[in-house]
Amino acid sequence: MSKSPIGNQRWIVVALLFFATTINYIDRQVIGLLKPTLEVEFGWSEKDYANIVMAFTAAYALGLLVFGRIIDKIGTKMGFSISIVFWSIAACLHGVVKTTFGFGVARAALGLGESGNFPAAIKTVAEWFPKKERALATGIFNSGANIGAVFAPILVPTILALYGWQEAFIITGAIGFVWLIFWLYYYEIPTRHKKVTEAELAHIHSDNEEDTSNEKPITWGTLFRVRQTYVFIAGKLLTDPIWWFFLFWLPSYFSTSFNLDLKKPGWPLVIIYMATSIGSIGGGYLSSYFIQKGWPVYKARKTAMFIFALCVLPIMSAKYATNMWVAVALISLAAAAHQAWSANIFTVASDMFPKKAISSVVGIGGMAGSVGGVLFPIFVGYILETYRQLGDSTAGYNIIFFVCGLMYMLAWAVMHFISPKMTPYKE
Questions:
Q1: What SS3 class is residue 5?
Q2: Which of 60, 105, 328, 410 minimizes the number of CB atoms within 10 Å of its CB?
Q3: Euclidean distance between the first and final Cα of the chain, in Å?
Q4: Is residue 185 part of a domain?
Q5: Which backbone phi and psi does 323 adopt, to 5 degrees?
Q6: SS3 helix, strand, coil % of the chain, rounded to 5?
Q7: Which one-letter DSSP state was computed for residue 4?
Q8: CB 400 within 8 A of CB 383
């Protein structure tokens, strides 16, 4: 990245996206870390918790579709601002609700607001980076998800111990308003940015083959009729639910299987999410490296994603892990591979579609992933509750890990079947 003629502004953009994504994931992970406390406070069963998770993912799915379209119309600066204000307010509201239903409502509001993050971020990357650099830029900002997941197991138990679960929601939720100040002050698209030169704009568009003379929006109807959309839909539908599981159930898994005390900093979770940061940046770097070596874009992306799909397979052996740190190693590899996969599949959308449609496509694919995220907790909740009643909660997790291991290879195969060369969309 340092070899391009673009100066510090690009790094500021990446940093803003990184911190927004970090905050996004801190806010969504708080409930997973407080799950044992809230189960006692409100008498939740595994199915109750699964329903609350589904409220988030259902609203997130709807929000992705809506926010994706809105951001393509009003732009990244205003669209991102609306998103983070909405989700920060919703995150704080978790601290004042008194019922399980109230948690479901607050969770749905959080999902609706947070859904603007990735459509806005991916479009921002497309606005500021040529295709050959987008995967690495995406990997860097997407690693914010992992940093958020690293800090949350340290931050949330500390707040819980010092103040209580209500304050854990309120304090973490308020962080988004701090970010908003920096976003409004520093961000603008390249064509309007006072510090961006003609040479820098030429670099941004150096491998851009799209026709910019027609800025008429591409309709949803058109997007749903082309196979390129379904490449992205398939990849997100089959793999996003696995990340939701890692995010919302891993604290409970370690608490149940290895008696991890969630009122103290969760170092196994910290290690896992640190590994995902390496995966996110490394995944973005690998496909960019292949492109720099002269590989076609589609071959670079697909080869990298195939490697990452292989790296998830070992998690199927987690059922044999009787030592917590062996389980940590297996899950770390799978979670890192997911984030490497994620950095590339987001970039696939910007590879195949013009900038004016990217947020809409990311919203559609993200909605598909969230639909999977709605359905998968039903399966997870049923399996865990069934085996808990049988007195063997660990066996339920073993079944779920087996399913997790298979999904990425399945997703890769389906994406290859739909479009072997990931041909870009042409109007």
A1: coil
A2: 410
A3: 31
A4: yes
A5: -100, 130
A6: 80, 0, 20
A7: S
A8: yes
Residues 280/146, Cβ–Cβ less than 8 Å: yes
For residue 324, the tally of other CB atoms under 10 A from its CB is 14
Whole-number Å distance between alpha carbons of 71 and 149: 26
Name the nearest CA neighbour of 27 among 66, 85, 81: 85
* Owning domain of residue 358: 8-203+219-418
Burial class (CB in 10 A: 0-12, 13-18, 19+), 402: middle
| Tokens at 24, concatenated | 């996004």
Tell me the angle at which helices 76-93 and 117-128 cross, rounded to the nearest 10 degrees.
Answer: 150
Query: In 165-226, where does DSSP find H-type helix?
Result: 165-186, 198-204, 220-223
Dihedral sign, CA of 169, 41, 56, 104?
negative
Which amino acid is it at 239? T
Tokens of 101: 């239903």
Nearest to 206 by CA among 300, 119, 133, 295: 133
User: Which CATH number covers residue 148?
Assistant: 1.20.1250.20
Query: Does residue 225 belong to any structural domain of this protein?
Result: yes
Residue 282 lies in a domain: yes
d(CA 204, CA 11): 14
DSSP string across 13-77: HHHHHHHHHHHHHHHHHHHHHHHHHHHHHHT--HHHHHHHHHHHHHHHHHHHHHHHHHHHHH-HH
Phi, psi angles (nearest 5°) of residue 244: -60, -40
CA distances from 279 to 285, 340, 356 (A): 10, 5, 29
* pLDDT in the model for residue 4: 44
Rg, the chain, Cα only:
21
Tokens of 35: 């799950």
Distance CA 1, CA 300 (A): 18
Which tokens go with 379?
């399966």
The single-letter DSSP state of residue 66 is H
d(CA 174, CA 178): 8
For residues 281 and 140, is the Cβ–Cβ distance under 8 A?
yes
252 domain residue, yes or no: yes
pTM: 0.72
Chunk the chain into consecutive blocks of 10 residues (it has 427) and report each block's average pLDDT, rounded to whole numbers. Answer: 53 88 86 82 80 84 83 87 93 88 90 89 85 80 76 82 85 91 85 72 66 65 88 92 82 78 69 83 86 88 94 87 87 92 86 82 84 81 80 78 92 93 81
